[in-house]
DNA sequence: CAGCATAGGGATAAATTTATCCCTATGCCT
DNA sequence: AGGCATAGGGATAAATTTATCCCTATGCTG
């Protein structure tokens, strides 16, 4: 396994939090789990932009950091369910705030992000949003 | 300049926000600026773990995203001051929440983060904290 | 039987982010 | 004159994170 080489900065709250939330899909995963999307296959459907591999990796890190818990059912086909731990739940206000902030400023953000120098292509259908699915009754 | 190759995911608030806050020092920089640490050299002193180069890069991205504004004084030696824009200020509740969450759970987080498999060395003096400096009257 | 669904993970490549090093410029101070 | 402080950025290497591909396993279904 890969082993970090640069010292990790964890001496201010900001860095500790960043360490936990750092990962392309981690906030989205926590959000999903909080909305009762517990099975990896469901998460994968919700986040078509992500690969099974990446989700596995990031879920494992969240679990190692104690933000989520994994329950394995001895069935076939395999069944696994994740849930937020207490400390994981305590992150939700932050996740919610991030979600709201992004939605509130969506049009502005889309503009500046899209116009930033290093931007290439932009995908707009990576995370369909639970609400839409919910609206169509496809959430389970 | 580097140009992105994978499509950027910006369709849910979480991803938009992540895009803006994603950078090792960005949250810390926003926090610093909000506390009136406006000059690059001051920030560098506050964050000894960072290089001038990285700060420059991340400050520029924050500026391109419209979170901060740069004011250049035509003096010698050069003087530059950053300040939060209105939308930049609107991020502060999130930054504060992240900061608080990290501090609140510090001992737990230090443990799990330190014990995670891929961890090597850990630096504990990267971001000394404005408060300490302030307490010693070294903040200006 | 062939194929699907479920979940997990190794190996490796590619992409992206950070780190290093070096160079520019100009007054002031010793 | 030589060195410091200030701010910026190019070029390139190293580190880190994501993406791709492939393989395992087991009942059920058509």
TrEMBL record, chains A, B:
Keywords: DNA-binding, Transcription, Transcription regulation
Keyword NAD assigned: no
Keyword Nucleus carried by entry: no
InterPro entries in UniProt: HTH_HxlR, WH-like_DNA-bd_sf, WH_DNA-bd_sf
Superkingdom of this protein's organism: Bacteria
Domain HTH hxlR-type: 12-110
Protein's name in the database: Helix-turn-helix transcriptional regulator
Species in which this protein is naturally found: Chitinophaga rhizophila
